[in-house]
Specification:
- The protein is α+β, with helices and mostly antiparallel strands.
- Among the domains are: about 110 residues, Up-down Bundle (Son of sevenless (SoS) protein, Chain S, domain 1), CATH 1.20.870.10; about 270 residues, Orthogonal Bundle (Son of Sevenless (SoS) protein, Chain S, domain 2), CATH 1.10.840; about 80 residues, Roll (Ubiquitin-like (UB roll)).
- About 40% of the residues lie in helices and about 10% in strands.
- The protein contains 26 helices and 13 strands.
- The protein has a five-stranded antiparallel beta sheet.
- The chain is globular, with a radius of gyration of 33 Å.
- The chain starts with a strand and ends with a strand.
Length: about 725
């Protein structure tokens, strides 16, 4: 049992003390001994237990000198993990040179053993013990963090260490190890930072040009081969990641000009992740001539590849593929998505759920820790057909008899470490280094090291044909991919590939699987959007501002209301007030019906100064005087209007269009906005709604205010949903 022993304060250090009660002996009682019994052969009532209380001291905060000294005394204080924690995190508050000088010059100089700090180390009775303790620390340093000594071209610290070993531990194994490490670093000096990234375009043969993806060539690669090769590249990069590069205090400084070469191993994994994402987008959009069914087949192939990555426990490429499929330019290919088969859509939905941001990505965290050291993936599918395929593929992996490692999505750990660095202070009272913070950081670093170790279980062979194809792909910029996406979708709209009956069934299927609504039709044209597939039906009208300093947009949008004669047809309403989606999401063209059918087309206001829409305005046609004027952006009509809401701190340039009426109050609008942004609607109390008046003015709404009457109607209807302070 453990008991809190409070704190012990010394000059330059504060220790947490824990009292540990340990059973040291179990003896027979007096009566049992008279009968000749032994303690371990008797029931508990005939035994006597003896306990001993030991004290565990763990340094909580201290000066750099005390923290280095504690490396030599930690085992005596029963703080057995201290050396690993210090070596993994000290770069956040000290340099390799400073720590090495303290360790070797102040504590390792055996000539000073009769006075100074060494004489005060109570746990050491002789120079032999001191030498052994220093050797133990140095050995752990070289084994766990050899990259700390990489200082091209001079390698000053490594040469200093080698000199110390020659004088104090000549001809030792450690001396040989340091010499070999020095030769290794010198041989690698020619490598540049780009050398860490096996997927860099700089690896191409001279004269070879990047090319647009060839769908036929991509289709020739089997799904499991692509997944294995992506995993091979991810494993090679992840094993090279230097854990301390992930520390929040280091990684958060990467954008400074002087730190352009900071944390190259982490940058390499991120480059690989982005390369996979861009490759997915390029293969889907790179060839405009593809038919819709062919493009859908490429999407299906990438979903299958993502599933294979899941079987291989490669969460990095899995997330990269899912992110690409949820990206702005791919998301909006509504007509193409409708041609993707139902089973594959279900598979995609299940894979996407792994990276749900609910409860700080709890699902992916639990799954990662569950499978970190397991031999194979634990696959559960709610869809029977997918489950059968998964188990069959998994059985093939097991039959090979080779264990698998786990490649994580590194961004999760980077986020955790940055959060820790932000939340906890570097120094405590008295200017002492807060080592409790480093213990917390080490909990995350230890997970990275565990997963790196598990990656040694992979047995993958590079396929040069695929790797060469992968490296030679020309990636599209965001502007290029969105432009191609618009062209592809526009071409799809003009090509009636489906009969009205089959189109209606596919519309209902995809809306049920992805959007959670009953009906959705492919919209005509949309501004950019970056939200993942899975929003409400009104998301097709969302827009992302092209410029961060302009709120006014000049794009126009036709809204067509087409009531159908059939009473049970859900398209008969101009807009769904429950979902807050405008009519363009519900009907995209006029349909001939009975004589009572009405059709109205309205031109979206292009700015705050645009006039009201009338029957005589160009682009407006009224088939019946009974037609109601639909709400539009930036104009209050008939007790309703459309506002645009962005999420503060998530993606300020992405807006969600929401319909509000003169009956809506703050909780209703906030809940609708959270749903549109794929956030938990139950968190209404945690947010406040703000209207942007100008660059330096905002209108904050009270808790139960009526948004329609409270808003400023003389400026753009742009709102921000912000977490309450």
């Amino acid at each position: 049992t453990f008991q809190d022993g409070g704190e012990e304060v010394e000059e330059g250090a504060v220790y947490n003390v824990t009292l540990k009660k340990v059973q040291i002996q179990q003896a027979a009682n007096k009566g049992a001994r008279w009968l000749g019994g032994e303690g371990d052969q008797l029931p508990p009532e005939h035994t006597v237990r003896q306990y001993e209380t030991s004290k565990i001291r763990a340094i909580k905060a201290g000066t750099l000198e005390k923290l280095v000294e504690n490396l030599l005394t930690a085992f005596g204080d029963a703080d057995f993990s201290y050396i690993s924690i210090f070596l993994s995190t000290y770069r956040a508050f000290a340099s390799t040179k400073a720590v090495l000088e303290l360790l070797l010059d102040r504590f390792g100089n055996l000539e000073t053993s009769g006075h100074g700090e060494v004489a005060n180390l109570n746990s050491f009775a002789s120079e032999v013990v001191l030498r052994a303790e220093i050797a133990s620390v140095l050995r752990a340093w070289l084994d766990q963090c050899s990259e700390d000594f990489r200082e091209p071209p001079d390698h000053t610290c490594l040469l200093k260490l080698l000199d110390y070993l020659r004088n104090n531990m000549p001809n030792s194994d450690m001396e040989s190890k340091v010499q070999n490490l020095l030769k290794q670093f010198q041989n690698q000096e020619a490598e540049t930072v780009d050398g860490f990234c096996s997927t860099s375009s700089s690896d191409l043969v001279d004269g070879e040009e990047l090319e647009i993806s060839n769908p036929e060539e991509f289709s020739s690669f089997q799904d499991h081969v692509v997944a294995e090769q992506l995993t091979y590249m991810d494993v090679m990069l992840f094993k090279k990641v230097v854990p301390y590069h992930c520390l929040g205090s280091i990684w958060s400084q990467r954008d400074k000009k002087e730190n352009k070469n900071l944390a190259p191993t982490v940058r390499a994994t991120i480059t690989q992740f982005n390369t996979v994402t861009k490759c997915v987008v390029s293969t889907i959009l790179g060839t405009k001539e593809l038919k819709i069914q062919q493009r859908a087949k490429i999407i299906e192939k990438w979903i299958h590849i993502a599933h294979e990555c899941r079987i291989l426990k490669n969460f990095s490429s899995l997330r990269a593929i899912i992110s690409a499929l949820q990206s702005n330019s791919i998301y909006r290919l509504k007509t193409t998505w409708m041609c993707v088969s139902k089973d594959i859509l279900l598979m995609y939905e299940e894979l996407s759920e792994i990276f749900s941001d609910h409860d700080n990505y709890l699902t992916s965290r639990e799954l990662l820790m569950k499978e970190a050291t397991s031999k194979f993936a634990n696959l559960d599918s709610s869809e029977k057909e997918n489950q059968k395929k998964s188990q069959k593929r998994l059985q093939l992996q097991k039959n090979k008899g080779v264990m698998q490692g786990t490649v994580p999505y590194l961004g999760t750990f980077l986020t955790d470490l940055i959060m820790l660095d932000t939340a906890l202070q570097d120094y405590v009272e008295g200017g002492l280094i807060n080592f409790e913070k480093r213990r917390r950081e080490f909990e995350v670093i230890a997970q990275i090291k565990l997963l790196q170790s598990s990656c040694n279980s992979y047995c993958l062979i590079p396929d040069q044909k695929f790797i060469q194809w992968f490296r030679s792909q020309r990636h599209l910029t965001e502007e290029e991919s969105y432009k191609l996406s618009r062209e592809v979708e526009a071409a799809a709209d003009t090509t009636n590939i489906l009969s009205p009956k089959s189109q209606k069934s596919m519309v209902k299927r995809i809306s049920t699987l992805f959007l959670g609504t009953d009906v959705i039709t492919p919209p005509k044209e949309h501004p950019p959007k970056s939200s993942p597939l899975g929003g409400s039906s009104g998301e097709s009208t969302d827009s992302a501002s092209v410029s961060s300093c302009e709120f006014n947009h000049s794009e126009t949008e036709d809204v067509c209301v087409t009531p159908i004669s059939s009473p049970e047809d859900p398209l008969k309403k101009g807009y769904d007030s429950d979902k807050g989606s405008i009519g363009s999401d519900k009907g995209s063209g006029s349909t001939k019906g009975s004589g009572s059918d009405k059709c109205s087309t309205f031109d979206k206001a292009s700015g705050p100064d645009s006039g009201p829409v009338s029957d005589k305005s160009s682009g407006s046609t009224t088939c019946s005087s009974a037609s109601k004027v639909l709400p539009v952006y930036n104009r209050q009509n008939g007790g309703a209007c459309i506002i645009r809401v962005s999420m503060d701190g998530i993606n300020d340039s992405v807006y969600k269009s929401i319909l509000i009426t003169n009956q809506d109050r703050i909780p209703d609008v906030t809940q609708r906005a959270l749903l549109k942004h794929n956030l938990e609607p139950d968190a209404v109390e945690d947010y406040e709604l703000v209207q942007v008046i100008s660059e330096d003015k905002e209108l904050v709404f009270p808790r139960d205010a009526n948004v329609f009457y409270g808003m400023n109607s003389h400026v753009n209807f742009d709102f921000i949903l912000r977490k309450k302070a």
